[in-house]
Records
---
Amino acid sequence: MTSSPEALSAIEQLCIRKGVRLTAQRRAVAQALAVACQHPDALDLLSVVRERLPRISVATVYRALRKFEAAGVIEGQTFGARSRRYDVASGHHDHLFDEDSGDILEFSDPLLDRLQREVARRLGYRLIEHRLILVGRRLDEGVTTTAAADRTVPNRSAQLMPAPNLQPFRSTSSRVRQRRPRN
């Protein structure tokens, strides 16, 4: 299948630039990644890919994901005890994983990045890269609070209020996840 560059998803274009050969199956997985919610897992992608390729196996989807990850097209992360989730390699950001709902919030904080570099320097290292995954539970089911300004907004019905220098993005899986009881 030959597509014009405009018709290719950004992920397909990145695969081509990184030298990943796009078979029909890999192309379908790349297209599913392009339209999926943020941080899909292999089963999320399998359900989308099967709309176009009903006979594709879950093993083929996993192989494509491993190939994309090895080429630096996507990044895989494991959040808590859940399955590996995937994110397009699109610049540095950190994650906060909600242990109860499975929601994943992406954020970037220059102050935190400077602090991590300083800690590495104090220990005698130059930081090359880092990955930060915070795992937590909401303080209160009804509100989300930012520490910097003590502002609250209703939970799940409004965008998160960013503290200075934070840029949060809300991300949820396309599949319903079981809530684990709080201890």
---
Amino acid sequence: MKSNASAGVADKSAAVEGSAAADKLKGRAASGRSAAALWAASTDLPSFHGRVVKGEQIGRTLGYPTANIDAIAKAWGLRNGVYAAEVRIEDEEKVYRAMLNIGARPTFNGCTNTIEAHLLDFSGDLYGKTLYVVLLRKLRGEKRFDDVEALKRQLAKDAEAARG
């Protein structure tokens, strides 16, 4: 996994603009890697990908539906917490800002780590699709909240910070 946090998001697109990689980003590369995979690979920031699987759908009830990403092994070494991220959906050009949680969801007595991403300004069905994730920065550590309302207030702050 790549992990140079000093690289910027703007550097990622500049690094491929006008290069052979830019041509590959417009379609499938000869190697069979998708444009989204090449996009994620073009940064020095931590990145991984995984297929969206069905979760417990808790995020929906909180007003923040999440895509549960089957990528635990690919995110090995990342600390539990909430991250600002950029996400690309397989075979799509658009890059979404997201808040992403890696952890056991202690407020809901979770005992197994999951990776869940709430894509900001997205509406649609992601089940079965592959998401390519680039982590921009850690927003906060994992925390158990006293109640669901306290968690919702914090999620609103996290979403705003992830936009920034």
